[in-house]
Specification:
By secondary structure, this protein is mostly beta strands. It folds into three domains: 77 residues, no CATH class; 56 residues, no CATH class; 97 residues, no CATH class. Helix content is 0%, strand content 44%. The strands form seven sheets. The protein has a five-stranded antiparallel sheet with strand order 3-2-1-4-5, with no helix packed on it. Strands 17-18-25-24-23 form a five-stranded mixed sheet, with no helix packed on it. A four-stranded antiparallel sheet has the order 19-20-21-22, with no helix packed on it.
């Protein structure tokens, strides 16, 4: 019951003295006739309207109530403007589908392309489709993106899939190489010219919670993730627990002596732990495969990066 309350107002900016009384925290900003956040004045009660906002912030405001005798009481409130967290769950052609982490409808979704360190907003074919539906789900058609064509002096070197990162060399004078991750640098895939100079590099970064599994075959794999296929019974992939002191939830490739020769992180980085082994680049269908080889060139393990990295969401 607020029948005895004469006025309720909100000071929306505790750093400014709107009424000029020397106190920055007691201004009736919400009772300004030009402000739509009027709450109560006399017998009239209004909704407190906030937004729309074009930025995210956390802000303190002060709610003040005054009775018919001029007595006042105040309470500080915190306004948090935030964006729900979206996650892309699948891409099929030019259709991007996923969900936000709250069951909200009509939330706008923007899709961006990340290429060579630059973020570009993608064109949405129909803006009415770029909104969440029931349970926070979205399915957005975007303009199709062709492969990147890497060129030098106007001549093509390689085609690079923006969806999976697969690299296809089109000039045989260039070659691929792979540098394993270190404590300071992530895994790096390189294209080099005939003189050994790097002309392009690529890195993989798997999303949080991505699959990392050992398999006996790459056939029939349909879900995204990083899959490890030992080359023979002499080699194994051992998955780590979440409490492992190194590479938690990652894993190790071990040899016949059960010695770790390579480690794999949940981000998709591969660490060479025995320098008699090295990594090479290969592909399988639309995806990248990295081969772990011994000194004789024999493949002892293969890692399939079944990922869709064309889109990011914010």
């Amino acid at each position: 019951d607020i029948s005895g309350v004469k006025k309720v107002s909100v000071d929306t900016d505790l750093t400014k003295d709107t009424d000029g009384d020397g106190n920055t925290t007691n201004d009736a900003d919400s009772l300004d006739p030009h402000n739509t956040s009027l709450i109560k004045q006399g017998r009239t009660i209004f909704d407190l309207e906030l937004g729309a906002f074009d930025s995210l912030f956390i802000k303190k405001v002060r709610l003040t109530a005054e009775d018919e005798n001029g007595n006042t009481t105040s309470k500080d409130l915190t306004i948090v403007v935030y964006a729900p967290i979206p996650e892309i769950q699948s891409t099929s052609g030019s259709i991007v589908s996923g969900a936000i982490n709250e069951s909200l409808v009509w939330e706008p979704i923007d899709i961006f392309r990340f290429r060579n360190g630059k973020m570009t907003r993608l064109k949405i074919d129909n803006l009415s489709t770029a909104l969440t539906k029931e349970n926070g789900l979205f399915s957005i058609p975007t303009s199709h993106l062709p492969d990147i064509v890497l060129k030098r002096s106007g001549s093509g070197i390689a085609n690079i899939s923006e969806t999976t990162g697969k690299i296809t060399l089109t000039d045989p004078t260039f070659q691929m190489s792979v540098l394993g991750a270190t404590s300071t640098n992530p895994l790096k895939i390189q294209i080099k010219d005939s003189g050994g100079q790097e002309v392009f590099s690529e890195r993989f970064s798997l999303p949080s919670g991505a699959r990392l599994e050992g398999v006996t075959s790459f056939d029939g794999i349909t879900k995204n993730g990083l899959y490890v296929l030992p080359g023979s019974s002499d080699f194994s992939f051992i998955k780590n627990t979440s409490s492992a002191p190194t590479l938690p939830n990652g894993g190790y490739i071990t040899d016949s002596r059960r010695q770790a020769i390579a480690g794999i992180s949940t981000q998709g980085d591969i660490y060479i732990l025995d320098d008699t082994y090295s990594l090479s680049y290969d592909t399988s269908g639309s995806y990248t495969v990295l081969r772990l080889r011994d000194q004789s060139g024999q493949v002892v393990a293969s890692m399939l990066y079944r990922i869709h990295g064309e889109y990011v969401v914010r």
